[in-house]
Amino acid sequence: MSQGWWNALWIVLVCSSLACSKPEAPVTNTAEADTATDGLKLAPPEPGDADDDSGKVRVSDKSVKSRAAAGIDETNPFQDAAKSSPIEAGAPRKSLAGRWILVLTRRAQEQQFIDFHTGIVSVSAAKGDEGRLTAKWTAPSEVLPPAKLVSSEIDNKSIRLTFDIDGGSKLDFQGTLKDGVVYGNALFGNCLPARLLPTKADSLDDFNVSPEPTDARELSQAFSKKDPKAALNALAEFVADHPQSPLSMMAWETSIMVSAIQDSAPEDVEQLIADYNQAMAMWGSRLQQASQGNVGIILSQFKYNPDFSLKFVAAADKSITDESLKELKEQLKIARDGILTVQALRYVESDDVDRAEKAFNFLTKLRGKNPFNPAVLYGLARYQEKAKQTDEAIALYAEIVSLPRLEIFLQNEWAQKPGAPKRDLPSATLVKLWEAKHGKMDGLEEFKDETYRKRVVAFADQPAAESPAGNKLVLCELFTGSGCPPCVGADIATGALEVTYPKTQVIVLRYHQHIPTPDPLTNADGEDRFSNYYHGQGTPTVVLNGAPVNNVGGYLPNSPDIYRGLKTLVNQQLDSKATVQVGVNARVVDGTLQLVANVTGLDQLGDEAKDVRLRLVIAEDEVHFLARNGVRGHEMVVRRMVGGPAGVEPKDGKLSIKESIPLAELKSSLATYLKKYEEDEGIDFPAKPLDLKRLHVVAFVQNDESKEILQTNAIAVTASASSASNAITPASGKAAAKKTPTEN
After folding, report:
1. Of 200, 501, 608, 622, which one has the fewest beta carbons inside 10 Å?
2. Is the bond leading into 140 cis (omega within 30 degrees of zero)?
3. Integer Cα distance of 713 and 596 in angstroms
């Protein structure tokens, strides 16, 4: 509770992107993009997300300049928002007629909130109908992408405005005039408080369009309280002193979160929720409904009293009648499953045999839906352990211990409840059970390795049918890092693709990066392709046939969803006919890799032929290495781009590569690169896996203008019997670079 406990609320309520970024560089990874024509879709953008290429709401250079012109002191984050303000002073308006600024209030950074002045809404009498009001959207500011007002409904003191936002999202505002201000809510990704504030200005160019709310300092001070009781008192004072503040929603929900963490009495939590519901009435029915849904999610996430939480979630679900909140209702179903899981985890160790068995059966069904829920796996393991089913218990504990970061997630979950009973870690219990069964520890590490291989991609669909001859293959390029925790989801999801699709349909290449920590599987060619060709900044990044895919960041529990999203995109591309074909051949003779690749059909490309390049990649089939992020097996690891990352361009109407590469030279060059990196960064890699016995040579043709990959082909090469065992090389030792982000 002493390190920014309040920020946990935003983990629950805000859909933040998962990615690791280069040290000292902004994250502009595709995993953060909200919309992309070729990628998986995230929720619509929210104000304050700074990514100019994604269509997100942002504070632009123009806005920054206008702030400077208005005399805004950027060094003071809590300056008085009324200074240089376009908001009209004077007697409150009694009618909706006039100019209004549409203001959306959102968190911009961890402890900073912004009033985003999106533009001016001008309300006036409709032509030919003096009794009816109509609205026009004028003077939009730079905090929104281009927006078009497509409809307006004005009735007495109520108004509804619907906007189309560039990038395919919508903004829907509903509000009612009260005391000269239109209080309401906007559906823009999430449902959030929003206002129409009166103005006489006809443009926002000379004003600060992204000021701090005047009460932001007070709320941040409440958030900064390290003692839960002090925080609750400060938050209660805030909502009492600022009943009309849009920040009150954050204050109320944080109060409920802290109360849930502290296991406050149900009657106290019930009263807090009732007061919150009443406070939200002024912001409109839709936000009132959304706030109750948010509370249900909070109670589930922080594992508050299951009986109370189940009752509340059922009531919240019934209260949500607004059709636009259907996604929230779906989230409440997930919350309900979470609450039932907490309940089952309590019952599974019960001395009541019937109750324990029912709980076990429920958890078994949940495991089928989400095979990587560590709490569910632990509950099942405890049941089997108590039932003296030692083999079954060992298998379940081994999953928690061997699969990436599951034991860490379980530890973090246990730490949420300060007063929870202390339990042995699954790794300690596994050792105890294994030694009791076998009388010694021999074989345990091999068993964990085998458990990993067996379970990590067990969710993958069965192999697909072959594509018709002449169809385009899909090249999936994953830029990842062995020290990148949110890369795990993409690593495992792309591994599942390799189970589902043969290499005549889908080829996955993994280019490792030193992001966020040093990675012994990285090489200069992979770095160049990521940074200079695709201009990447964050891992994981996935590129399918040259097109970036968003929403690929995540942990092991996210991998089935990432896999399904990628699978949908792959299937869309497998039906495409290839314009060109790539032939590739390779063999090892006396320790030298001899390879040749050529392209046919260039004449079919016309003017496009000048832009295409042939690239040839040497990839190692599998590297056995226990990475810092918990991934134990790394498939199709790129070791070199033959001829360099730039590839080969057509010459005299032909496109081909022919090379002979001594494998000893390849291994030596990789070792030299890693040694230099160690010297430059002052680190020591604990392991440098360089077996290079089982390889694939992958050739692909790419249009460097559009980045589209036109065709791909691959061939397997066995250099000689592998000198490496199937045992996983542990990542022991210290390999932290001088300047890397702290791993969470």
Report:
1. 200
2. no
3. 12
Domain ranges of the chain: 33-214, 217-343, 348-455, 474-718
> Domain 474-718 adopts which CATH fold?
Immunoglobulin-like (2.60.40)
* C-alpha closest to that of 272 among 243, 244, 239, 301: 239
In CATH, the number for domain 33-214 is: 2.40.128.120
- For residue 484, what are the contacts with CB-CB under 8 A and spacing of at least 6? 20, 515, 516, 517, 539, 540, 629
- Reported as a single tens digit per residue, the pLDDT across 528-568 is 999 999 999 899 999 999 999 998 999 999 999 999 999 99
Residue 468 has pLDDT above 80, yes or no: no
Phi/psi at 726 (nearest 5 deg)?
-80, -5
For the cut 80, the answer to whether the pLDDT of residue 490 exceeds it is yes
- Looking at per-residue confidence, does 366 or 738 come out higher? 366
Structure tokens at 88: 């009209």
> Rounded to whole angstroms, how far apart are CA atoms 224 and 234?
10
Q: How far, CA to CA in Å, does 368 sit from each of 211, 335, 349, 451, 564?
A: 48, 17, 21, 17, 16
What average pLDDT does the structure give for the chain? 86
**Residue 411: is it exposed, middle or buried by C-beta count within 10 angstroms (0-12/13-18/19+)?**
middle
pLDDT in tens, 624-664: 999 999 999 999 999 999 999 999 999 999 999 999 999 99
**How many other CB atoms are found less than 10 A from the CB of residue 603?**
9
Tokens of 166: 């560039």
474-718: same fold as 33-214?
A: no
Taking a C-beta distance cutoff of 8 angstroms, is the pair 612, 469 a contact? no
Tell me which DSSP letter residue 533 carries.
I
- The Cα 15–Cα 6 span in angstroms is 16
pLDDT-derived band at 599 (thresholds 50, 70, 90) equals very high
Q: How many CB atoms lie within 10 A of CB 391?
A: 10
Residue 624, SS3 per DSSP: strand
* Confidence (pLDDT) at 130: 66
Whole-number pLDDT of residue 110: 56
Taking the CB of residue 2, how many other CB atoms lie within 10 A of it?
6
Closest alpha carbon to 148 in 137, 135, 139, 159: 137
Q: Is the pLDDT of residue 455 over 80?
A: yes
Task: Report the C-alpha gap between 100 and 76 in whole angstroms.
Answer: 27
**Fold adopted by 217-343:** 1.25.40
Give the rounded percent of residues in the chain with a pLDDT score beyond 90.
74
Residue type present at position 292: Q
CB-CB contact of 595 with 659 (8 Å): yes
By the 8 A CB rule, do 68 and 60 touch?
no
E strand or H helix that includes residue 677 = helix 663-681
CATH number of 348-455: 1.25.40
Window from 94-103, 109-118, 309-318, 349-358 with minimum mean pLDDT = 109-118
